[in-house]
Specification:
single chain; 404 residues; alpha+beta; Major capsid protein gp5 fold; eight-stranded mixed sheet; seven-stranded mixed sheet; 12 helices; 35% helix; disordered N terminus
Length: 404
């Protein structure tokens, strides 16, 4: 590699795919080692060196995203259109709703929202959920279920049945019954409004299922991810950071436990990784087997510079495009909706997201055609209902960047 080239050029010249990520990470380690050496000798790093480290760090993020980006095209199974599918195509392309109205009346559908609209075919709904699973960083790691009701209820035991040991012929005392409580996950309405020209709708080659799914994918994924992390539970699902947080030493069920870094708005200057280890072991052994980190890109960039006592970097790039980078051997999920490191921020979540957080999709995506509001475009008011929340408060812990 030509060391006289600008750093951006050197990183880009490595080519596409994970090979470029690994080459960029090697360049990052060299530059960061140089920065640390300058700090050790002169008590401060050269500005040029620090900028070089940050520049390569950003390049690693960009190359990782590029490597994970799916290829265009691919095989798609073509199924014989159903009666619902044919009626839906007619409604979307021409606005003729008699076929859909008859089908929903025949099925005695009760899923219509206050703004009306018609249920999309199962193929379209499945395509939307498939794309959301690929686009949303949390859908792929959390517990996702489907429900036909607006309020999903899940019982849990606050106290188990009494048990004990007894000799083979000894009398057994009567045991107490388990105490059950109930978690509730109300479905909240999420909407998007893609627009199309009539010329596009008249084009019989256009796959409407795929077009609608891709048009709403980004909007749904962004809104959902924000809600799953920061939601208040009022007009959108309650997010992981939306619950009351207490120090892990004082943790009780119904709250989210946290480990404090001991420094307002940052890590300790010496042995900063100790708190990361404390956070890992604040989660019980049974949850650590499938645990992972959740943090923003900027938080990940800060941690990327940490080393262990042997000088090895704790952060490691993903080995394959469909894998995640790792931190202390646990996968890292990146989301821009996680708060960056500031005073008293909870900028890292660690734990078993599958057992800790539940996402409930209410069956049925509805679509309302509007050719009047934005002529000459046709708007498609598309809605889906989703509920979510923590289902096991033992499974997820956060890191608070504060003294206590």
């Amino acid at each position: 590699m030509d060391m006289n080239l600008p750093m951006e050029t050197k990183v880009a010249s490595a080519g596409d795919g994970m090979a470029a990520v690994f080459e960029a990470f090697e360049a990052f380690k060299d530059a960061n080692d140089e920065r640390l050496e300058q700090i050790e000798k002169r008590m401060s790093a050269d500005v040029v060196t620090s900028e070089k480290v940050d520049r390569i760090s950003r390049a690693i993020d960009e190359l990782t995203l590029k490597a994970k980006r799916p290829l265009l095209g691919g095989d798609t199974a073509i199924a014989e259109p159903t009666e619902h599918k044919r009626a839906f195509d007619t409604y979307v392309r021409k606005g003729e709703s008699n076929g859909l109205a008859a089908l929903e009346a025949k099925a005695m559908s009760v899923g219509s929202g206050q703004d009306g609209g018609y249920l999309v075919p199962p193929q379209t709904e499945a395509e939307i959920l498939r794309l959301l699973a690929k686009s949303s960083p949390l859908r792929g790691v959390c517990d996702v279920r489907q429900s036909s009701v607006t309020l999903y209820k899940k019982p849990f035991a606050t106290a188990g049945a009494a048990s004990g040991w007894a000799a083979e012929t000894a009398a057994r005392t009567q045991t107490t019954s388990p105490v059950l409580a109930e978690l509730q996950f109300p479905a909240m309405e999420l909407y998007a409004m893609p627009a199309a020209t009539q010329a596009l709708l008249d084009d019989s080659v256009v796959n409407l299922d795929e077009w609608i799914a891709r048009e709403v994918e980004t909007v749904f994924a962004e809104q959902e991810t924000d809600a799953f992390i920061n939601g208040d539970g009022v007009t959108r699902p309650k997010g992981i950071l939306g619950y009351t947080k207490v120090a892990q030493a004082s943790w009780t069920w119904g709250n989210t436990g946290y480990i404090a870094t001991g420094v307002a708005g940052g890590f300790a200057a010496s042995n900063p990784t100790d708190k990361l280890v404390d956070l890992i072991y604040s989660v019980k052994a049974g949850y650590r087997q499938n645990a992972r980190w959740l943090m923003s890109r900027n938080t990940q960039a800060a941690i990327r510079k940490f080393k262990d006592a042997q000088g090895n970097y704790l952060w490691q790039p993903a080995a394959t495009p469909d894998a995640n980078a790792t931190l202390l051997s646990f996968p890292v999920i990146e989301s821009e909706y996680m708060p960056d490191i500031t005073t008293a921020s909870h900028s890292i979540v660690f734990g078993d997201f599958k057992r800790g957080y539940l996402i409930v999709d209410r069956v049925g995506v509805r679509l309302l055609r509007d050719p009047y509001s934005s002529k000459p475009y046709v708007l498609f008011y598309t809605t889906k209902r989703v509920g979510a929340g923590i289902q096991d408060f033992d499974a997820l812990k956060t890191m608070k960047f504060d003294v206590s």
